[in-house]
Design a protein that fits this description.
Protein name: Exopolygalacturonase
Main location: secreted
Structural class: mainly beta
Pfam families: Glyco_hydro_28
Radius of gyration: 22 Å
Keywords: Cell wall, Cell wall biogenesis/degradation, Glycosidase, Hydrolase, Secreted, Signal
Strand content: over 45%
Subcellular location: Secreted, Cell wall
Number of helices: 3
Length: about 425
C-alpha cells in the first residue's frame, strides 16, 4: 500500500530546518584522489568540504548531525562547483535537512562513500518528514556507493497506516523536494522506516544503479515514490521491499522507468489516485524492460472509490515486462481499498485512458492473470493489450482474465484469452 501524501502537508513539514555551526574547510592533500572523485568534470573544482574536517567521528556511536550540517552550510555559501565528501565509515545522523537555494553554486556533488545510520528516536522527526532531505537545490549529484540505513525495524511496530486512514507518517529515508537537475547514482537504501526515496515537485531528475532493500513484510516501505514531478528517469536499479517497488502518485508527467528488477514487493504501481481533492493528472508515463520476481502485483493502476474530485491518468505505456511467479501480473483497480473493509459512497472519479500493455510475459501465481476493474462512473477508454503471454506458474491450467466497465482492445498473442 502506497500513500499519496498531500503536497501542502509535505511542504509544511519540510519547512523545518536544522542549523549547524559553520567551520572552516580545507583542500590540503587532495591530489589525484580528489580528481578521481569528479566523474562529472575533467577539471578539479575549487571548493571541497569533508565532513570529517567539520568534526564527524564516523564511529557509528557519536551523533554526527552537526558536522554534516556545518559542511553543507559552508558548501552552500561557496561559489561555482562544490564537492562534499563523506568518506567510508559509519555515521549516526539525523534528521538532516540540506536546504538551498545555494545562490552562487552551479553544482553540488555529494560523494557519499560512508554508511549512514538513522536515529531511532521518532520524537526527532515530524509527521511525514524525511530523515535525509534535499530541498530547493539546482544541480545536485549524489553518488559514491554509500548507504542510507533507516533502522526501520524499531519503527515499523508504530506504523498504523494499514488500519488508520489518518495515520501518522513515519520518516522517509531520502526525500527530494522542489529540486531541479538532480542526479542520483550508485546509492543504497536499506530498512527505511517508511518510503525509501520520495520525489515531490522535482524536475529533471535522473536516478540509476540504485539498490533498495527491506523485508517483504515491512509496512509502507515503498522503494521510490514520485509525486508532482516531471522529467523523471530511473534505470538499472534493484528494488526489493515490503510495498510498491515504485509508486507513481498524482501530478506527474514525463516519467520513464526502465531496467528495474522488482521483488519482493507489490510491483510497479500508478497510484493510489483520487484520495484527495484537487489532485493533479498523470500523463506520459513509460515503464519498460523491467522484471517482477515473486511480487504480489506486476503492473498495477489503483484509484480510490468515492473520489472527492476529478482527475485523469492518460498516455501510459507498460512494455516488455517479464513476470516471474507474480500473483496479479496486470491489474486495474478503481475500487482500491487497502483496509480490511471500505464502504465507498460512489465510483472513482479518476479517468483512465490511452493505456498500453505491450509484450507482457511470464508466470502468474493467480488463476486470474489480467484483471481490469474500471470505474462505473467513468469507464476506462482506449485500453490496449498487445502480445500478452502469461501462464499459470503451476502449469496446471490456463489463466483467465476479468473485465468490468471497460472494452479493451487486443492485438497479437493473448494468453489469457480476452474478457468475454
Amino acid at each position: 500500500m502506497s500513500l499519496d501524501i498531500p503536497f501542502k502537508l509535505l511542504l509544511f513539514f519540510s519547512s523545518f530546518s536544522f542549523t549547524g555551526v559553520p567551520a572552516g574547510a580545507t583542500t590540503a592533500g587532495l591530489g589525484s584522489q580528489h580528481a578521481q572523485l569528479l566523474p562529472y568534470n575533467n577539471q578539479r573544482t575549487s571548493h571541497f568540504f569533508n565532513v570529517k574536517t567539520f568534526g564527524a567521528q564516523a564511529d557509528g556511536l557519536t551523533d554526527d548531525t552537526k558536522a554534516f550540517l556545518s559542511a553543507w552550510n559552508k558548501a552552500c555559501q561557496a561559489t561555482g562547483e562544490v564537492d562534499i565528501m563523506i568518506p567510508k565509515g559509519t555515521y549516526l545522523v539525523g534528521p538532516l535537512k540540506f536546504a538551498g537555494p545555494c545562490e552562487n553554486v552551479s553544482k553540488i556533488i555529494v560523494h557519499m562513500k560512508g554508511y549512514l545510520k538513522a536515529t531511532t528516536n521518532l520524537f526527532k522527526y515530524g509527521d511525514g518528514a524525511g530523515w535525509v532531505e534535499f530541498r530547493w537545490i539546482e544541480g545536485l549529484a549524489l553518488t559514491g556507493g554509500g548507504t542510507f540505513d533507516g533502522q526501520g525495524a524499531k519503527a515499523w511496530p508504530y506504523n498504523s497506516c494499514s488500519t488508520d486512514f489518518n495515520c501518522k507518517l513515519l520518516p522517509t529515508n531520502v526525500k527530494f523536494l522542489a529540486m531541479n537537475r538532480t542526479i542520483v547514482r550508485g546509492i543504497t537504501s536499506v530498512n527505511s522506516k517508511f518510503f525509501h526515496m520520495a520525489l515531490v515537485e522535482c524536475k529533471n531528475f535522473k536516478g540509476s544503479k540504485i539498490k533498495i532493500s527491506a523485508p517483504a513484510d515491512s509496512p509502507n516501505t515503498d522503494g521510490i515514490h514520485i509525486q508532482r514531478s516531471s522529467g523523471v528517469y530511473f534505470s538499472r536499479s534493484l528494488i526489493g521491499t515490503g510495498d510498491d517497488c515504485i509508486s507513481i502518485g498524482q501530478g506527474n508527467s514525463q516519467v520513464t522507468i526502465t531496467s528495474i528488477s522488482c521483488g519482493p514487493g507489490h510491483g510497479i504501481s500508478v497510484g493510489s489516485l483520487g484520495r484527495y481533492k484537487d489532485e493533479g493528472d498523470v500523463s506520459a508515463l513509460v515503464v519498460r524492460d523491467c522484471t517482477m520476481i515473486g511480487t504480489s502485483n506486476g503492473i498495477r493502476i489503483k484509484t480510490w472509490a468515492n473520489s472527492p474530485g476529478r482527475s485523469a491518468a492518460t498516455n501510459m505505456t507498460f512494455e516488455n515486462i517479464n513476470m516471474e511467479n507474480v500473483t496479479n501480473p496486470i491489474i486495474i483497480d478503481q475500487a482500491y481499498c487497502p483496509f480490511s473493509s471500505c464502504t465507498p459512497m460512489g465510483p472513482s472519479q479518476v479517468k483512465l485512458s490511452d493505456i498500453y500493455f505491450k509484450k507482457i510475459k511470464g508466470t502468474s501465481l493467480s488463476a486470474v492473470a489480467v484483471a481490469l476493474e474500471c470505474s462505473k462512473g467513468i469507464p476506462c477508454q482506449d485500453i490496449y493489450l498487445e502480445d500478452v503471454h502469461l501462464e499459470l506458474a503451476t502449469g496446471e491450467k490456463q489463466v483467465t482474465s476479468t473485465c468490468k466497465n471497460v472494452r479493451a482492445k487486443y492485438i497479437g498473442t493473448q494468453i489469457p484469452p480476452p474478457c468475454a
